[in-house]
Design a protein that fits this description.
- The protein is mostly helical.
- Helices cover 81% and strands 0% of the residues.
- It has one domain.
- Helix 2 crosses helix 7.
Length: 149
């Protein structure tokens, strides 16, 4: 049993790597998504059309706002800067995306089927990861850690 405890202690010592990789991947996902919507006219128009179809108010403003949040907060996650704020902002974007578009695409006939399809949504996975990063913090390989510690 001692070897299990030693293994878990060693594993915990490497938690920073999982946090770092997660921050990089999720941050890059949002940065690139926001970049596309901000700087590629076709992607911005597609986003605006999605918001119109979802009956989101002020679609022109929200297209730019959401894209900017994704771009800026994605960059903040990559750097590990203002991580809790970035997680809250991006989490808000994910909640709205789930509520306005993603959840409408679920076509399950049973409660378990619906739950299975709901949990399979990429927006739900991103939200769960953002919640984890919010509570775990950015790890020691981050600007937040350099400033605060």
């Amino acid at each position: 049993m001692l070897w299990i405890q030693t293994f878990l202690t060693e594993l915990h010592a490497w938690e920073w790597l999982a946090i770092f990789v997660t921050r990089l991947v999720v941050g890059l996902l949002f940065l690139l998504s926001g970049r596309g919507k901000l700087f590629v006219r076709e992607r911005r128009e597609q986003m605006r059309q999605t918001l119109i179809e979802a009956h989101v108010p002020f679609p022109e403003f929200n297209t730019v706002f959401v894209s900017t949040v994704e771009f800026v907060c994605g960059a903040l996650l990559i750097l590990g800067t203002l991580t809790p704020i970035a997680c809250v902002m991006l989490g808000g974007v994910m909640i709205v995306a789930i509520a306005t578009t993603a959840i409408r695409n679920i076509k399950a006939t049973s409660l378990l089927g619906w739950l299975s399809e709901f949990l399979y949504l990429p927006e739900v996975l991103c939200l769960v990861i953002l919640i984890w990063l919010f509570f775990s913090g950015p790890g020691w390989l981050s600007v937040d850690h350099l400033i605060l510690f």
